[in-house]
Design goal:
The chain has 120 residues and is α+β, with helices and mostly antiparallel strands. The protein starts with a helix and ends in an 11-residue tail after the last strand.
Length: 120
């Protein structure tokens, strides 16, 4: 939330922000049920839900997330997920971990709807 606020202060005309990546936002690192956390406020939407496993470890943890600010909700195309490259390409065990120990996360957005910054 602090990073988004800093970005807002640097780009005051922008409403659309995306926080994404390996946030360690599950299991022992983060209480995903803590509704008091600043990123759990109504200002944010979590596109990668708590039920998705984003790593190749034996644990079932959603470390990787895509979180958008309220300004992006209307552009979100209601499609987000985890790309299980090991299953898609038939890569197993150590070979899969040589690619990455995390699965890529993705989300689709509509473009061209917003007439804000940059003339999108």
């Amino acid at each position: 939330a602090d990073v988004v606020e800093d970005a807002r202060s640097r780009h005051p005309r922008e409403d659309d922000f995306i926080v994404l990546g390996d946030l360690n936002a599950d299991c022992d690192y983060f209480d995903e049920e803590d509704l008091g956390h600043p990123l759990r406020s109504m200002q944010y939407t979590w596109l990668i839900g708590n039920d998705q496993d984003t790593n190749l470890a034996a644990s079932d943890c959603t470390y990787d997330r895509i979180i958008v600010t309220a300004g992006l909700r209307e552009d979100y195309a209601k499609e987000a997920g985890v790309f299980r490259f090991d299953a898609v390409f038939g890569i197993e065990g150590k070979a899969a971990k040589k690619v990455s120990d995390h699965y890529p996360v993705y989300a689709r957005f509509a473009v061209g709807r917003d007439s804000g910054v940059g003339g999108r």
